[in-house]
Each structure stands twice: as structure tokens, then as C-alpha cells.
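Below is a typical protein record.
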Amino acid sequence: MIASYENRATEFSGSYHRGDGRRLKCAAHLHHHLELALLLHGDTVGYAGTERCQLTDGDAFLSFPNQIHRFDSVGPEEFYLFIVDPRMMPELEAAFEGSVLPSARIPGAAADPEILHLACLLVEGAEGNDQYEKVARRGYLLALFSRLLGMAKPTGAAPGDSQALKTVLSYCVKNYRRDLSLSVLEQQLHISRTYISHLFSDKLHIRFNDYINSLRVSYACHYLESDDYSVTEIADLVGFGTTRTFDRAFFKRMGRTPSDYRRENSRPRAGKTT
């Protein structure tokens, strides 16, 4: 399945749609986030990798990080849509990174009263940036995804190109701070550099180096939102060789400098008063 890579800087978005013109329909893509659709009413086809899922009233669709997915809307829809950085739930990291779902479709999950209650709470507090609202949001997310994973029972691994791509992307995510190149991946993963390059160009429509820079920028955004490290320290922390290289890559993807991003999005450390 041909897909595009999406760079998402925000760690969470949650929305509810009914009769507002918003559809689930979208082209094949992937990103570092979890994507969850709770279909309350409607007929939609979801694709995760090579799996085709017919979704009807009460079904949920969950794609894991770095999994190619898309939707084809068939008719009117009522749904919740959540896009979540898995780093918000480190307690579930092993499940998100080390396994796959038997099916992206989770029958009946969108009709589960507890799941619907948590979805409603998350949408109501989606824009809140107060430190206590963020703590509550993380708690709701842990409860929501723990229940979903209990229903879906993740296990196993994906075959063929999908598994090779997952292996490569997982390695990059775990080692983004280090020197990464096609040669390094070839040596470490025993996968031909030519084949890896093919996966990025044909499956993701992005060059390998552009993907690595985008990955590092995504992590840099997370660090820039607090004042724990200077911009120079963050450049080194996420794997950029120089501050100049960091500034250039960051501006290309975010349309602003790291310092500007920090001014617009910084939050105080827990326990720190302003």
C-alpha cells in the first residue's frame, strides 16, 4: 500500500463529529502516533496495512504507531477521532511497540459505555493546557487504551514488507539520537540498504534522511515545551550534529525556529510557579 508520512508535532488531538461535514475518509498515511476512530453511526471501510475492515455502528478502528492506514467513507458518519503520541502512556509502550493487533477493527468498542464516557471527557478537555488538565487527560487516555487493548488482545508480528518496514521504523525510533544512515541500518538489521531505501520511497513517499530529520524534530518539540534543556542541548539530545543543522531542519518542518516554537508552546515544570 502506497502511503505518505505525516509529521505531527502535537501530542494529542481529540474531536467529535456529527453532521459537520467532517469525514473519516483520508489517503493512506502513517505517523508516530496512535490513531483511534470510534464509529457511533455510519458505514466506513478502514485499511490497516493489507487488512480491510468493514466498520459499522459501534465499531472502533485502532492503528498503531508507524502503521499504514486509511479510510474510505461510504455514507454519513458520527464518530470520535483521537490521534495520540504514545509517549503520553509509557506504561503501555511495550504493547504499542512490540506487538500488532489481530485486527485493527475492535467490534463493539464504540458502543461500550465506559469507552464512550472516556471519549467524551477527552474531547471536552482536548484544548486544556493547565497542568492538572494534562494529568487528567493522561489518566483518561490510560484508562481508554487499557480497555481497548484488553478487548483487542495485541499479539504476533506482521508479514513481508509490512514487518520489514515496522522493524526499520522501530529501530529508528529507538535510536534516533545516534548516527543513523542506510549503511548503519543495513549492518544492524541485516536488511539491504537498497531495500530499505525502496521501502521509504515506495511505501512512505519520503527520503530516508528526511524521515530521520522529521523524527528528530518531533522529539525536539516535546523537549522544547519545557525549560529543562537549552536549544543547544536539545539539538545534541535528539541527534543533530550542530545547532545550525537543527535550526535548518526544524524550520523546514515547523515553519519557525526552535526558539520561536519554545516561546509559543513552553509550559512550566511540574511544581514550578510562574
About this structure: Residues 270-274 have pLDDT under 50 and may be disordered. The radius of gyration is 19 Å. The domain at 160-265 is CATH 1.10.10.60 (Arc Repressor Mutant, subunit A).
